Amino acid sequence: MDPGYSRAHSPSNIPTSSSKFHHPYFTPAEVDYLSEKQRGKLSVTQEDKIRQNACGFLEALGVRIGFPRRTIGTAQNLYHRFHLYFPRKDFNYVDVCLAALYVSTKMHDTLKKPRELLAVSYAIRYPDLAAKSKHPGGEVDLDSMDPQLVEQDRQRLLAVERLILETVCFNFTTRMPFPYLIKIARAINAGKKLTKLSWRLAIDCHRTLLPLQYPPNTIAMGSIYIAALLSSFEHPPEQPEQGCCPASQIAETLGTHGSWERKFQVQAEDLEDMAHTVLDLLIQFVQNPSANTSPSTPSSPSPHQNPRHHQQQPPPPPPYKADQLIRLKIAMRQTELPPRSRPPLGNTDPSSSYNKDGTLIGRNEGTVRFLFGPPNVMGNGV
C-alpha cells in the first residue's frame, strides 16, 4: 500500500467535520464544465444518447406504474443532477434511474418499495420474462427469479439512493413548472391549444438539463414561448380562440424585453436559450422518432386500476419537420439577444466535495453537515 495514501487516510488526517451545500441551480457554464468532467471518454453524442435512454426508461417505468407527472419529471431531474457529480462510467444508468425514481416517490408522497420498482423494471428490460409472468399488471414475479440477483439489484438501488440524497443535500423541496404554466397561460390569455402544447414541451424540458439551470417559472414561460414559436413560424395566420391572444403576438412579446419580465420574474435571454435547447431535442426526435418525446401524462396510482391501462401509447407523428425547425433556429439567431451574465451561486466547483481522489463510495469524511443552499446564500455560521 502506498505510504502516502495511508497517511492521508489515517484517522488523524480525516477531517472531524465538513459541510456540503445544496446547489438548486447551475449556470450553463457550470453545467458544461461538470458534464465534461463526468463524461470521461464518451463523446457528447454518446452522452446524450445515454441520457435519452435513461429518460425513456424512466418514462416507461413511471407510466406503467401510473406515477403522476411530477414524480417522473423529478426523477429525470435527479438523474441529470447525479451525473453532474459522479462519472457515467462508474454507474449503470438503470441503477441510477431506479434510485432516482425511488427518491422522487419519497419527495412526492407516491412511495413504492424498491422490490416493486424492480419488478416493473424487469418487465420492461426483459419482455420475455414478462410474457411468461401471470401477474395481471405484467410485472415479473420476483419469486421466479434468482433471489441473489434481485437482492444485489436492490442493494445497488439503495447504495445509489444514498448518493442521490447527498447530491441534493437531503433537501426534499422540489417545485415543478406545470402549476406556473397554467397560471401564466391564463395571465397572458393563451389559448387552450397553445397551453396544451406548452405543457407537452414542459415535459420534454425534463429530458434536458434545463431544469437544473432555470427555476420552474422560467421553464413554464419558456415552454409557452417555444409553443408560440412552433405555432406561428411559417404558419398562415389563424383565427385565435375567442378572447385569447394570437400565438404570433405572444411569440413576438416574449422574444423582446418588456414589462412582462418584471411581472413574471423571467428574462427574455433565458427564454431564447431554452428555445434552442428544446428545438435541438425536437430535431433529434423528428430525425429519430423512436426517441419518443412528449408522452402522455398518467393519472395518479390507484389500487383499483389495472397497470396495463397505463402502458404508453405510440407517439403521434410530429406536426413539424426537421428542416422547418432548423429554419426557425436560423431565424431566431438573426434577431437573438446577447447572452446575459450569470455568476455562479457558489464560490467553488459544486462537485469537488463529492469525488475527491476519485473515491465515490465508503469514504470516511467524519461528520458532514448538509446545508440547503450554497455558501454565499446560506451566509456565515449557518
UniProtKB/TrEMBL annotation:
- Where is the Cyclin-like domain positioned along the sequence? 56-166, 179-280
Task: Provide the alphabetized UniProt keywords.
Answer: Cyclin
Instruction: Cite the record's Polar residues compositional bias ranges.
Output: 9-19
One GO biological-process annotation of the entry reads: regulation of transcription by RNA polymerase II
One Pfam match, given by its short name, reads Cyclin_N
Region: Disordered; residue ranges are: 1-21, 289-322, 334-361
PANTHER family given for it? CYCLIN (PTHR10026)
Q: Which family does it belong to?
A: Belongs to the cyclin family.
Put simply, this protein is called Cyclin-like domain-containing protein
Species assigned in the record: Laccaria amethystina LaAM-08-1
